[in-house]
Amino acid sequence: MSTMRLSRYSLLFMLMLPCIGVWAEPAKLADVIIPDSPEALKRGAQTAVGTCMGCHDLKYITYHDLLALGFTKKEVDEMRGEHTLGTALMSQTPPEAGLAAYGKIPPDLSLMAKAREGGPRYIYTLLTSFYQDAVGNTNNRLFPGVKMPDILGAGAANDPAAQHELQTKAAEVAAFLNWAADPHANERHHIGYYAVGYLIVLTGLLYLLKRRIWRRIAPPSTSLPSSKSDF
Ligand code: HEC
Residue 205 to residues 125, 191, 194, 210: CA-CA distances in angstroms? Predict the structure, then answer.
């Protein structure tokens, strides 16, 4: 094979490499439908506050933001305890304690759904991929050697009922973290509809205005100017 052809083949191979990466990545993630009903998001928030916040912060989300998910003021008051409504969702565990206990500071979860490829599907897969190896140690198929414990008990969910419960919980907390990464997305969509509606009405009005003005400037006549010089 000539050097020219060889370099052409290696160039083609190099161009295809990123495609292999793109195809290989999502296959590792579970093919799950992340729920988006208000009830699922609320239950996900309860898991996040009651379980995940044992170690993780959600520093960009405040207790007040939870009202937008449909929680009543009373429910939020119960969750926040002594904290004010404007307080961010900070873990009960200080970072140094997390580091000492797990060897890694548990990362902030507010933007996690944006930070990882696959977003909520990544979070779901991580939570459901814990297993016990042959010698009884817990590990994770998606993130081998992860320092986070099997917090939802995926390794012990052996019967279908326990698995269903685990999958529902993981999907709902992933849904909540997906909302948390962009809590104003719904508002923005609504504003978008209003803006488009406004522009359509404005276009109609401007068209009517244009017709009125042109009726005055160039009254419809039967004899059109014969040449450009008539202007
Ligand atoms: C007992 C402490 C603890 C609890 C509770 C906990 N985590 Fe973690 N989590 C960790 C630690 C420690 C890490 C860092 C893991 C590492 O980098 O090896 C981590 C990392 C993560 C990551 C990032 C993984 C990555 O790709 O870097 C996600 C996502 C996550 N946790 C989600 C959750 C969710 C969702 C919950 C609640 C259902 C939760 N965690 C509860 C300790 C905890």
Answer: 52, 21, 16, 9
